[in-house]
Fold this protein.
Amino acid sequence: MHKKPKVRRQIPNYSLACTIGLISAGSALPSYANTFQQATEFTLEEVVITATKRATGMQDVPIALSVMDGNTISEQGIGKLQELSTYIPNIHIGEGGAGEQMFIRGVGSGANAGFEQSVGSFVDGIYFGRGQSARTGFLDLERVEILKGPQSTLFGKNTVAGAINITSARPSDEFEGRIELSTEPKSNGWQSSLILSGPLSETTAARLVVKEGQNDGYMHNSVTGEDERQEKDSAARIVLDWQASEDLTLSFKVERGKYKSQGRNESVVQLSDTMNFLFDNVYQLDSYAAQDYTNSQRGWAFGYPKHDTQWDIFGLNAEWSLGEHNLRSITGYVGYDFQQIIDSDNTTLNLAERLREESHTQLSQEFIFASPVGGTFEYLAGLYFQDETLTHNRDTALQGSLVGMQNLGTLAKLQQDTSTQSAFTQLTWNATDSLRAIVGVRYSKDKKTLIKNQTVTDGDFNPANDDLLAFYSGEGLSFANNYTFDDQGARICGFDGVGVSCTSDSNWDNTREESHVTGDITLQWDINGSSMTYFKLGNGYKAGGFDEDNSMGSVDTIEFEDESVISVELGSKLDLLDGQARLNIALFRSEFENLQVSTYDGVASFLVGNAAKSVSQGIEVDGSIRLNQAFTLNGSVAYLDAFFDEFNGAACNAEQIAAYTEAGACTQDLSGQVLQYSPEISLALGLDYNAALTDTTELNANINVNYSSEQQITGDLDEFLAQGAYYKINARVQLASIDNSWSLALLGKNLTDEQTTNWGNDNPLIGGYFQSIGDPRSFELQLGYNF
């Protein structure tokens, strides 16, 4: 019998002792200064970020954040956000069964196409509201900033958990070019990129980057005999900077990319009695063994499992210098299309399959007016406008004949139009040279309009007759209804206990409007010229919306409410040893109400709703120290206590459903239970080495250790699928020329070959469990040439 979900853990004495020890050690570092040389070349480099809508030193910003520069991202072979999150405690970014998941401090969005993200993504100032942004690959970046906690004043809605601020590399003042090549033999993978950058005239400069790569995957499919997931990606971007006048600068960006994959990295990890019966009597697969972790999906109605995406991005950034003030305009267009085929039974049985096709377009405009810095008062003021259209088709096929039922299909279509308008301001009062107060406020208005319909079909996707509709709509199956939601109201047709009947609700409104006032108050005290401490109180919201799934067309659950948060943070940023070391500490507590959740209904779909209350609290410590000319040590550790404060009516896990005998849907009370993706302890530790070998050659090496304690990965907190504690070790060794003209490196990832999972679920149609299996050990050879 599986264990019940664990109640959230209290802070143990040893965790407090470790935390106090880290803080004490950091505070005491100056007493050991005589063991380190104090030469200025040993100081850590300043990290400049734009998290405050201005270029500011990271140590001067009263926000808990993590930053990774573009060179590190390239050297560590980090291709997308999912891989980046491994290096940063309290961050989870990964793929779920039908979408991407982005969590900070245990808070994120579940698997439903109607959800927007709890973690807002921004690329060069342009908002990316869909989880699909986590799948697109990195392309020639300057840096990635991960801001933790609500960021409502400057970044707006859907940043209740935090924000990811990505900055692309800019054109250079002098001509330069770079070629990067890499190969990973185990999965037959390779990547290549070309970068050209430099001036076109005295007033213009451009940067062109082209990237392409592929790999054959690391999981063997026992049915097809091939390795999966096979991936191909390509992207190209050009950035043009134009100094139009002494006071006006324009920057234009165009980007297009494609991502194609075939197969899945999911595996059945436990068989059920139903599975064994079907394997033995339908397919005679006596040798089928789940413990081999072989992927046995193959698809049948729509084709082989795959995910194909194409995206286009256009951006225009204009900056005017108006005396000592500055006016900035950011215009952005983001559009993508994707097609996904999922083998929904996750086995070779050809029982259930789903086709998803999504198209999304977004046009946004932001204006920011900024005062000069350094006076008694500083301020920002801005306006933001966004319009987007989402269309999503979800076709499902069920081969019921395998289990003695009729074949079935459903065709579901959704169109959602969304508009957002907001105005914001942030005022900084420098009360003294060392004490300041920062107050921000933002007013936002959101509007969403829905048109959604679903048709139940037969096995050939023709509209089902009344007998077939009644069979799947009723008789205890509750699989699907015919329905329409639009500006005429709601209409649902299904089995009523006697036959098929239709009901209408003309009062149902397909337009949802909401408005919010959010903001924050920060007090910042500069302890001295190199250290500061801060206190921040803020709130935020995540917009409500409409459920994309909802196979039964329930009026009561088609709409979900907005989510809100109140957060408090106490932090300190310390520069120590005359700039050789840094230590940053943040204590936080965030209280959420109406937390948006996605739960499985036990039959055919994920339904969305709102949990009553949840809490995320803990401490984060990170730091760096330049030990000497050659060695630099970096580390971060986080303690997290994230739990549902109140959550009655949560979905049951597989064991609870199997034992449930009462009428109606099975539910459980998760009050007091831990949140999804909220390990109690997470840690990242890295050591870098850089030294000259000869007059023309240098050696660069690093090793990174990442640790996570046990965590729950499913919304119903099924203990069977919990990810246990694990370490992952990555290392890299590089030879390079002193003049930076060439480099040759060997990168090893997951050197101890830890087997992990970032998502999984039970299979309610036929029982058993499946999981998404993480990357195994791999080695990558990298070559770089600059000209």
Summary: The chain is about 5% helix and 55% strand. The radius of gyration is 27 Å. The chain has a mean pLDDT of 87.
